[in-house]
Amino acid sequence: MSNPSLLILAGDGIGPEVMTEVKRVIEWFGTKRDLAFDVEEDLVGGAAYDKHGTPLHDDTMAKALKVDAVLLGAVGGPKYDALDFSVKPERGLLRLRKEMDLFSNLRPAQCFDALADFSSLKKDIVAGLDIMIVRELTSGVYFGEPRGIFEEGNERVGINTQRYTESEIDRVARSAFELARRRGNKVCSMEKANVMESGILWREVVQKVRDTDYPDVELSHMYADNGAMQLVRAPKQFDVIVTDNLFGDILSDCAAMLTGSLGMLPSASLGAPNADGRPKALYEPVHGSAPDIAGQGKANPIACILSFAMALRYSFDQGDEAARLEAAIEKVLADGVRTADLLGEEGVTPVSTTGMGDAILAALD
Ligand code: NAI
Ligand code: MG
């Protein structure tokens, strides 16, 4: 049997810096855990534009559609700000999302005990937190028609349309229930069924998917505004939250900040299953290319390494190995190893990007 395949697209700014550490981690699993990957690397974003005049070459797109998972660093930077919209670095990422049809966006909010002081909430509210927000990513009000700014009488009107088909709701709900089975077996679905028809349909379809195919998973429904309150009041009540594109955008950013630094936050986007039943998948840190610290060896590689841990768990069925990697990161943080973005108390000298990678590899050993 051939090894599982990974396409690495490091991108711009700190993307290649953090990805260097991820590649060391991937090699570690190959040599120490007998878990080898066929890794291919290519360009995306500004790096691809510099070489090919396009932020994503067709050959790269074709590779992304073939591999078992794509691992992306970050795209963009001031050098590319003046470029025409059609070739901006972000377009490379958007094309990947669109052609891979990545409709299910996974945003975990996980609090490492050693960093619980970083949260704006009280320590006991966030210590040990581990929730997953599943955001529908390819439909809803960001895409619905009609949209635009129109003349109406003697003034203008701005219009966006929240629109969801049953099949769009069905597939993201399935994705959430599948995840829940690998976690705490509990899903909370959030919408505004009290004031939105799309919310009524959302609630109906999610319930039906659960009753038909996931009766073993506990399902609750919550209005999204209450959900926002509950997320900051008692976030540990949740395991998996599934919600639409707009509410998911807001709720996932809110949940992310429960746990502190941008340099710690991984994400995944999943699409329809391939022939072998694995969903198409793209894993990436939540942060961008951080031009303010790029090239200085200061970037925290943990968000990108945790994105690889998500790949282990959700693309490769290696939940134990993912937990091994997360435990190594937990240990390093508990030992007080910090990149510059994680400095809270006085008197701690930050480690470099490579230094953090070294510490994680040592903890894995
Ligand atoms: P950003 O996430 O790149 O940076 C925001 C702040 O967080 C900066 O001060 C940065 O130094 C810090 N930061 C981010 N990641 C860090 C890490 N791993 N370790 C330590 N500190 C970290 O967002 P910003 O500044 O708004 O955007 C910069 C560029 O990145 C823009 O060109 C933007 O379009 C692009 N971007 C790309 C994304 C992607 O590739 N998915 C997502 C967000 C922004
Ligand atoms: Mg957002």
Can you characterise this structure?
- The mean pLDDT is 95.
- It is built from twelve helices and twelve strands.
- Strands 2-1-3-12-11-4-5-10-8-9 form a ten-stranded mixed beta sheet, sandwiched between helices. Strands 6-7 form a two-stranded antiparallel ribbon.
- With 365 residues, it is an alpha/beta fold.
- The chain has two domains: 1-111 and 262-365, Isopropylmalate Dehydrogenase; 120-259, Isopropylmalate Dehydrogenase (3-Layer(aba) Sandwich).
- Helices cover 40% and strands 22% of the residues.
- Magnesium ion is lined by residues 249, 253.
Tally of extended strands? 12
Largest sheet: number of strands, sense, barrel closure: 10 strands, mixed
Low-confidence stretches are none
Q: CATH superfamily assignment of the largest domain? A: Isopropylmalate Dehydrogenase
CATH class of the largest domain: Alpha Beta
- How many independent structural domains? 2
Cofactors, ions, other ligands: 1,4-dihydronicotinamide adenine dinucleotide, magnesium ion
- What structural class should be given to the helix and strand makeup? alpha/beta
> If you average the pLDDT, what whole number results?
95
Helix and strand run: EHEHHEHEHEEEHEHEHEHEEHHH
Shape, principal axes of CA atoms: globular
Features:
365 residues; alpha/beta; Isopropylmalate Dehydrogenase; 10-stranded mixed beta sheet; two-stranded antiparallel ribbon; 12 strands; globular; binds 1,4-dihydronicotinamide adenine dinucleotide; binds magnesium ion
